[in-house]
Design goal:
The complex is a heterodimer of chains A (233) and B (271). With 233 residues, chain A is mostly helical. Chain A has helices at residues 2-16, 20-53, 59-69, 74-85, 100-124, 128-136, 141-151, 153-168, 172-178, 188-197, 201-232. In chain A, α4 packs across α5 (100-124), α5 (100-124) packs antiparallel against α9 (172-178) and α8 runs antiparallel to α11 (201-232). Chain A is globular. The N and C termini of chain A lie far apart (49 Å). Chain B is α/β, with parallel strands linked by helices. Chain B has helices spanning 2-23, 37-41, 44-56, 67-75, 87-95, 128-138, 150-161, 178-188, 196-202, 237-247, 250-258, and strands at residues 31-35, 60-64, 81-84, 99-113, 142-144, 171-173, 191-195, 210-212, 219-227, 260-261, 264-265, 268-269. In chain B, strands 1, 2, 3, 4, 5, 6, 7, 8, 9 and 12 form a ten-stranded mixed sheet that branches. Chain B is globular, with a radius of gyration of 22 Å. The chains are: A mainly alpha (233), B alpha/beta (271).
Chain lengths: 233, 271
């Protein structure tokens, strides 16, 4: 217990004295995960719409597959991506292995099923006739999509926050394709893994504290926006 | 149909943007060095690498993994140079044509750490093999890295030499890095084969004293090998060769010899 309290106190000190190395790691973590979510959200929204309102064979099977892929272990994504991006792999020519680009792709793949599954669930809550009415009134597909997206904006935000939470905290894929390179691909989870292996528990806890604090802030922000919006209606 | 076409174009656009945005990171000129956790965790690389990269303006990306994986990265052409410690596996890399030549850099020592009570009574022995036999016969716990790292390869080699096939409840293969394995050995009160550097770095956080050191079969050699551009044309061979030259220079040797953890010298240069 002494060790835990001591480590936590030291962790707070590191954070508030502005330990540059820690804040750099935090910045990398957020920049990588933010970009991953930014790039994948449009595709995830389109896919969720296709699954919710599309009419094509195999739709139900696809929904089941997407739901199952939510449980995909990050380290498996990392391994597959490593094999694809390795110089001896099919996409080795891109020279992406051990870069932030590789981490971003990995996190995009990880976030995709979760985003699609959650957005799909929100869309199911919308009356199908809203979609059909918009379409018969001559709205383009994108126009109709924006109308529905306004309707389910909280579901969308919740999905994005959950997706961000999934990727910002994963270690398996980032360490595999990023390589945990200081100043470049060392993010919060890979740094925690490293510090733990060195027995530097203070650093590990400090980084963990940042992760939790930011997750809390994000969720409070969403809850506040939502509360205001509810009050207005 | 139009719908799916748009989908395809959209995802294509995203991927292209992404790849182009990230291509900057893969810009030429970076030297990728795969090495073992022991050189990274002991703080040696943090001293060595900036001296090299600042004076020559070559950014060095260090990927610290077990020796087995580091050599694998070299074979796949994912790194330009490897600094590892498993001589036979290193020579394999060279003989198979994936590495150009192996240069000796430095050595340190493998030691056996274990519980303070020393139930296998190995304290003071001068041979790792003899100590391994006593541990196996005593029924005391033993933690193995189990991750194909240089230390794990060394451990397997010692078991082979004393003709013991370790298995049973006493033999715990943890499949983790040196630091984590030491922490587990500490919790389980088990014996463990470790490089001296990582043990020194963690010493104050463990109650796991070294029982066997200075052993006749305990030397741990580190070699450096550049990846052969004939196998992987994109290898940054110029930077790799500069680094190999530099690490054998007097300047680098002084850094290696002068690096101390807990007041003890960790690595000795090979003249």
């Amino acid at each position: 217990m002494d060790g835990l309290i001591g480590a936590s106190a030291e962790a707070l000190r590191l954070l508030f004295t502005g330990d540059r190395e820690i804040w750099e790691i935090v910045a990398i973590s957020f920049s990588v995960s933010f970009r991953a979510i930014l790039y994948i959200v449009p595709l995830a929204i389109l896919s969720a719409f296709a699954l919710a309102y599309g009419n094509f064979p195999g739709r139900r099977v696809l929904i089941t597959i997407v739901n199952a892929l939510v449980a995909l272990p990050a380290v498996v994504v990392g391994l597959l991506l490593y094999m694809l991006l390795s110089s001896s792999g099919p996409f080795g020519g891109w020279r992406l292995l051990f870069t932030q680009g590789a981490m971003i792709i990995g996190q995009m793949i990880l976030a995709f099923p979760l985003l699609v599954a959650m957005i799909h669930v929100s869309l199911q809550g919308v009356d199908l006739s809203a979609w059909q009415t918009a379409r018969t009134l001559g709205a383009s597909i994108f126009r109709a999509m924006f109308t529905i997206m306004r309707e389910v904006r909280f579901g969308l935000i919740a999905a994005i926050v959950a997706g961000f939470g999934r990727v910002v905290s994963e270690v398996g894929c980032s360490i595999m394709v990023g390589g945990n390179i200081l100043h470049h691909t060392r993010n919060i989870p890979t740094a925690i893994a490293l510090e733990t292996s060195k027995g530097e528990f203070e650093q590990g806890i400090a980084l963990g504290a940042v992760l939790i604090t930011l997750a809390l802030a994000l969720n409070f922000a969403v809850a506040t926006v939502r509360g205001r919006d509810m009050a207005r209606h | 149909m139009i719908h799916s076409l748009r989908f395809l174009l959209f995802s294509l656009a995203i991927t292209l943007t992404l790849v182009m945005a990230s291509a900057n990171h893969a810009a030429d000129g970076i030297l990728r060095l795969a090495t073992t956790t022991s050189t990274e965790n002991s703080g040696l690389l943090a001293k060595l690498v900036p001296q090299f990269s600042d004076s020559r303006d070559i950014p060095v990306h260090v990927i610290a993994v077990g020796t087995g994986r580091a050599l694998n990265h070299a074979r796949n052409g994912d790194v330009d140079v490897v600094l590892v410690h498993a001589k036979n596996a290193e020579l394999d890399l060279v003989n198979s044509g994936f590495g150009i030549e192996r240069y000796e850099v430095m050595y340190n020592e493998f030691v056996i750490a274990g519980p303070e009570t020393d139930p296998a009574e190995i304290s003071g022995l001068s041979n790792l093999g003899t100590a391994f036999e006593k541990i196996a016969n005593s029924g005391a716990l033993f933690v193995s890295r189990g991750d194909d790292s240089g230390t794990h390869k060394k451990e397997r080699q010692i078991w082979d030499e004393v003709d013991i096939e370790p298995n049973g409840d006493w033999y715990k293969e943890v499949g983790l890095g040196m630091g984590r394995s030491l922490q587990i050995a500490d919790e389980l009160r088990a014996y463990i084969l470790t490089d001296k550097g990582t043990w020194l770095a963690l010493k104050r956080k463990l109650s796991l004293p070294v029982h066997v050191q200075g052993a006749s079969d305990g030397r741990n050699d580190y070699g450096i090998i550049a990846v052969n551009p004939e196998k992987h044309s994109h290898v940054n061979i110029e930077a790799a060769e500069q680094f190999i030259d530099w690490i054998q220079s007097d300047e680098a040797k002084a850094v290696i010899s002068g690096h101390k953890v807990e007041g003890e010298q960790l690595f000795y240069v090979i003249e």
